[in-house]
Amino acid sequence: MILPIVSYGNSILKKKAQEITASYPQLHELIVNMFETMYSANGVGLAAPQVNLNIRLFTVDASPFAEDDQSAAGFKKVFINPVILERSGEEILFEEGCLSFPGLHEGIIRKSIVRIKYFDEDFNEFNETYSGIRSRIIQHEYDHLEGILMIDHLSSLKKMILKRRLKEISVGLVEAAYKMRFAARP
Ligand code: NI
After folding, report:
1. CA 97–ligand 1 middle distance (angstroms)
2. Cα–Cα distance measured from residue 5 to residue 96, given in angstroms and rounded to the nearest whole number
């Protein structure tokens, strides 16, 4: 089932999400729905708050980047209760998008390497290190669980320049090729 994606301006995107247990109701179904929703929107990552759930879970599939970064091929995963343990390496500027900000693409600076622990859908624990596009996507989605959005990484000047556009996104005055839930109707 395809779920509506919450737009910028909804308060759930600013909240810190909560950990879940293995007995979280219909967890498997939720994961299936999140992948379906992510693929239908041509996304490479989707965090639970973006489908209006305040829980620490995100899905990723970096395959569309496989041509530029071989390690992205087949990188399809769900991260549950993730904790970023360390960010290292050089700071890299990369143009990011976000399904909660249709049409917006901005250069965001992030560290190149991330070490993360998390649980998979069977609640097996992993502790892994990623670089390249995988690290980029993980850090973007992890931010969503902390209530941090990509625009929070921009300078206040840049945010001011984008103010009108952000307002338009929040009220639904944007083109999105997927079903969205906007903050307020114009
Ligand atoms: Ni996002």
Report:
1. 7
2. 17
pLDDT at 140: 98
Which of 3.90.45.10, 3.40.630.40, 3.30.450.20, 1.20.120.450 is the CATH number of 5-181? 3.90.45.10
| Count of residues making up the chain | 186
Q: Could you tell me the residue ranges of all domains in the chain?
A: 5-181
* CA gap 145, 183 in Å, rounded: 19
Residues that are catalytic: 141
| Tokens at 74, concatenated | 């087949």
What is the 137 CA–ligand 1 centroid distance (Å)?
A: 9
Q: What's the gap in Å between 42 CA and the centre of ligand 1?
A: 12
Reduced to 3 DSSP states, what percent helix, strand and coil does the chain have, rounded to the nearest 5? 35, 30, 40
Place 185 in a pLDDT band, splitting at 50, 70 and 90.
low
Residue 132 tokens, joined: 């390249």
Tell me, in angstroms, the distance from the centre of ligand 1 to residue 96's CA. 9
What's the CA gap between 105 and 128, in Å, rounded? Answer: 28
- pTM, 2 dp: 0.97
The single-letter DSSP state of residue 3 is P
Alpha carbons 121 and 22: distance in angstroms, whole number:
8
List the shell of residues around ion ligand 1, using CB closer than 5 Å: 98
Q: What is the DSSP letter of 4?
A: P
Checking if the pLDDT of 164 tops 90, the result is: yes
